[in-house]
Structures are given as structure tokens and as C-alpha cells.
Amino acid sequence: MFVSNKSISDAKVYTDIQHLRSLHAEYQTHPDLVKKEVSQQFESLMVQMLLKSMRDANKEFTSELSSGDQTDFYSDLFDKQLSLELSKSGMGLSKPIEAYIDRRMPTPMIPPPMPSQMASASFQTAADFVKQLWTSAKEAASLIGADPKLLLAQAALETNWGKQIIKHPTGDSTHNLFNIKADKSWIAPAATFHTLEQRDGVITKQPATFRSYASYADSFKDYAQFLQSNTRYQEALQQADNPQDFIQSLQQAHYATDENYSNKVMSIFSSKKFNTLFHELNLT
Fold first, then answer.
1. Could you give the number of structural domains in the chain?
2. Based on the domain organization, do 52 and 143 belong to the same domain?
3. Alpha carbon of 102 to those of 15, 111, 271: distances in Å?
4. Are 263 and 249 in contact (CB under 8 A)?
5. In a domain, 112, yes or no
């Protein structure tokens, strides 16, 4: 079996203990994604150990002609690739590992210190976030026929209530409230940041380039224009007047890779604490 350089590299990612340790901090902000990645990595490690034990047991029955350093090297590569593929398809170990993580490390309630590539907090409280962005949210929502509260809930999820907004290396904020990425058509300023992406149940850490705006108002306007200009979001826009259907349709159109994205947005949108803010601040 031919093992490409990419396959070898991927296998290393899922069997790197140092990488497992580095996930501890990210667990604070992306617990669901990190739990899946950790369980996949441990499952891959366990499969590797099993394969190694089987090969060691069979060494007594191999001849000198069929063994050697080169053979062992390629056998090891093959085992790593096989363990990676088996862990992706699942062998029934991921769920028990995730349950164990839940028992030992409950889902965090308090956000951790911000990573170095996150802008300094523009909003001290959730009330500050809602109050300062309400007008911009209403203007953008009017463009697509959506509830402005839903846009605020989505922005709150994306940025941890404005406390984790991507910044430039200079320290200037991108004002990107929806973490919209910059594709080849984007000719305005942008910033690169590492994110956790989930594809077919597999979580990887990848660098991505995000759009940058002059203000939060511009971020809201671009969000509306971004949805309107992409054909894959047209079905979602047809349901914009229904918050539940709208955000679920965005999820189905792969607006975000997190499989629980729509549920998380609706959890904020429907919460008593969130809705009480509008009454306390006299926002209509």
C-alpha cells in the first residue's frame, strides 16, 4: 500500500502527545470539538498499540528475508495510516472517552484568557455588547428580513460576547463579528488566525484568513451582503423571518463546521438572560 507524505503527516497529527496537551486551552472555548478530537486521537493511539503488539507477536514466525529495518519502517507507516483511518470510521471507543472527559473536565462556564491573536475586549459585559451593537444589528437584519436579536445571538456565539474578536498582528481589531473568511474575491484588509474545523466528524486545526472591517456596523452589513451574494444561502434567506428555521438552514448550508452550531445560537437567542437584557436596556 502506498503511503503519501500527506497521509504520514496526518497520522502524526493524531498520534502526537504534545498536540494533545496543547488542546487543553482550546477546550475552554471549543469543548465539543476538542472532546471529539481528543477521543479520536486516543482511539488512534490504542489501535496503534494493538497493531504493534500483533506485529511483535508475529516476529517469531518471520524469516530474515521478510524482515529488516526497511520493512519495519514501512510496516510502522502502514500501521499509523491504518490506525488513523480506523479511528476516523470509529471503533466504538470515542463515546466512552468523551464521557470520561465530561466526568473529569466539565464543560467550562467561565471563558479563559484570550489568545494572543484575539483583540482586547471592546465590551465589558453582555449588556455592553447588546447595547452598542443593537442599532447595527437592526439595520443588517432589515436587509434580509431577520430578527436582529438572532443576529446578536449569532455574533455573541462567534466572539464570546465581543471578548474574542480576531485582531491583526499590529493589535488592531478586525471588527469581524461573524468570523467570515476572506476568499479570493475579498480585496479589503484581512487577518490570518488558526481555527478548529470539523469535517466528516474529524476535527483539525487549520490557518484561515478572515475579513477585516473599519467598524462593527460594517461587519453587520457585510454579513447580510455575504448571505445575499451566496447562492447556497438563498434557501436560508427565504426562512429569515423564522429564527429557528433560518439558523438551521444556515447550518445545513455549511455556514459553520460545528455540528451543534445552530443549537448553540438558539440556546443564546432563547435564554431568559439574553431576552431580559432588551427589556432592561429599553431596546425595541
1. 2
2. no
3. 22, 17, 23
4. no
5. no
> CA angle, 117 as apex, 115 and 123 as ends, to 5°?
75
Q: How far is the C-alpha of 277 from the C-alpha of 52, rounded, in Å?
A: 58
Residue 29 is assigned to a structural domain of this protein: yes
- Do 55 and 281 contact (CB within 8 A), yes or no? no
Torsion of CA 233, 235, 239, 243, to 10 degrees: -40
255 shares a domain with 160: yes
Full pLDDT tens readout for the chain, 284 residues:
333 333 333 333 434 444 444 455 455 555 666 666 666 666 666 666 766 666 666 665 555 544 555 556 556 666 666 665 655 555 566 667 667 666 665 554 434 434 444 544 589 999 999 999 999 999 999 999 999 999 999 999 999 999 999 999 888 999 999 999 998 889 889 998 776 666 666 666 777 899 999 999 999 999 999 999 999 999 999 999 999 999 999 999 999 988 899 999 999 999 999 999 999 999 98
Answer whether 206's CB lies under 8 Å from 194's CB.
Answer: yes
pTM: 0.58
Domain that holds residue 273: 126-280
Confirm whether 116 is domain-assigned.
Answer: no
Q: Which residues of 9-22 are buried (b: 16+ CB within 10 A; e: fewer)?
A: ebbeebbeeeebee
Q: Are residues 196 and 250 in the same domain?
A: yes
Residue with cell 455588547: 129
The residues with which 206 forms a beta bridge, in sequence order, are: 195
Instruction: Please check whether residue 143 is in contact with residue 195, taking contact to mean a CB–CB distance below 8 angstroms.
Output: no
> What phi, psi does 205 have (nearest 5°)?
-100, 120
E-assigned strand segments in 173-233: 190-199, 202-211
Within-domain flag for 115: no
Q: Which residues are catalytic?
A: 197, 222
Q: Where are the beta strands (DSSP E) in the chain?
A: 190-199, 202-211
Q: 162 and 241 share a domain? A: yes
